[in-house]
Amino acid sequence: MAGGDVGTGLAGALVTVLRPVLGDSVAVRDLHRLTGGASRTTWAFDAVTDRAQALILRTGPADEVHAGMELEARAQQRAAAVGAPVPHILAADDSAAALGNPYLICGAIAGETIVRRIFRGLDDAGRDRLLRQCAQALAAIHRADPDGIGLIPADPLAEWRERLDEMGDTTATFEWAFRWLEANRPPPTPPRLVHGDFRMGNLIVDDSGLAAVLDWELVHIGEVYEDLAWFCIRAWRFGAPEHLGAGGLGSVESLLSEYEAAGGCPIDRAAFRWWLAVATLRWGVICRFQAERHLAGQTRSVELAAIGRRVCETEWDLLELLEGRGPR
């Protein structure tokens, strides 16, 4: 089916989906596919009634890795209820009957997601403000009630051990890291709602700072350290210097202090560094997995091959962390 035919058919199906929410007179205009989105397809469009409302459609097949669309929606609504900046959800369905795949429809949020453009527009005060807002958003997310919406607990160390074993390939650094982390695991902390992929690139930033937290498909129940540490690995600094270890915005200590000041739970710095090593190892396994997709012929891609070359970068970072060095 040609691209125009797909768009026309999808627009008609969207009208049917939106009528119970926006009324029988709703029409869909300017439907177009957006770039980006590794696991799901994103479309932008206007829903027109007595006014035009800019909306976003995310759609894609169900899988065993990502949360279902209805679960994503419920998690975002719980986070919104305690003040986290998230898009307004209009509809979500795990069934493929209406649109050919499960879907989620939400309000469009104006702003920028491309990190290098965000960085170019920030001075020191702007970076400080955005870092503080990220800490406040995480504190709000972690206050949200996770009960009764279908979230399941996850142990990231066990998860990434399993992912690496499934590939049948490893490195000496990865193996040492897994053994060290298992032997030095800090005591568990109370389970909370965890975004799972909170980082630069999954945030919308406007002239006032953080406008919305996106991409909730890895949401689960876990420890707050997981989100905080993931924000601070080298990859999500996007080339910013090491002293801006928290998302390229400020120091790791600044993030943790702002998080505590925003009402987040007290953060044990030694436990955080353990979780930072877990997050770094997670990224290393992801890099190896992406390379395998290319090498095995599953998805031939120069981009995937290039990501695979970053395995050695994560090994270096792991060695630094496990020897007591690394970002602070």
UniProtKB/TrEMBL annotation:
Transmembrane segments: none
Aminoglycoside phosphotransferase domain sequence ranges: 31-247
Coiled-coil residue windows: none
Domain of life: Bacteria
Protein name: Phosphotransferase family protein
